[in-house]
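Notebook entry, structure prediction.
Reason for the run: the old model in the group folder had no record of what sequence produced it. Starting over properly, with the input documented here first.
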Amino acid sequence: MRVALFAAICAHLLFFSLLSCKEAGSKQPVNPIKTDSSSSGKQIQLHGLASNPLDTVDVVAILEKKLPLWLNYCKKTMPSFTLAGFKKTTAASFTPQLENPADSIIHDANCLKYFYIPSPNSRLLLDIYSYRLLFNANDKDGKLHIGGGDPESTIEITDFQKHIWQRITMAGSPEGYDDACWLSKSIFLVVGYKDVSNSSVTPCIQLYDLENKSVVFGTWPAYAVQSSENYLQHWKGKHWDVKWD
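New structure, fully documented this time:
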């Protein structure tokens, strides 16, 4: 099954590669996964990342520039939320929990444009969504149907150059990941949450440096939640051409 799914992804990528080459009038293959030149395609110059990324990275400025939708979501669902409450908590090294050849990744090619977040040089694909979701093609309406799956969330990386897939980490309930962005070709930021109670949530961030295998955690205080809206479904995926089950 995994080999079949990977074959579907390869076919998907090959199609867009050929299409890109035809449009450009070039015979050279082109990586079909493009980055937004106005945001993630531009690298932010960072320094001192080997020791502690949050010492030199302005997380608040990055969130405002690259993940404004998530900030608006926090302000809407947690009216008392304020960026000023952010603080770093711990820094540590990490080792990927799982590593396999890229032909073992468990992804549906139809979800590529929605769930994969490409690095600025398009070498890496970041996926924080597909593990916890179920995907089904519906013959009646022709749309991709998405439903809730596993309660856990994962951070996964596919490396086109090394042809490997890695699971960086897994978050079990009551934690989860909402969104992510790349800061450079090897550094990315993940935003998420931790349920403190049935009515309060702590927003969280994780900043990963793949080259130095380091991660820094940051958090906000717990805030009362006044909305049951799901970020992925009701905010980020609101206008996707899919059916949420």
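Summary: The longest strand covers residues 200-209.
The old model has been moved to the deprecated folder.
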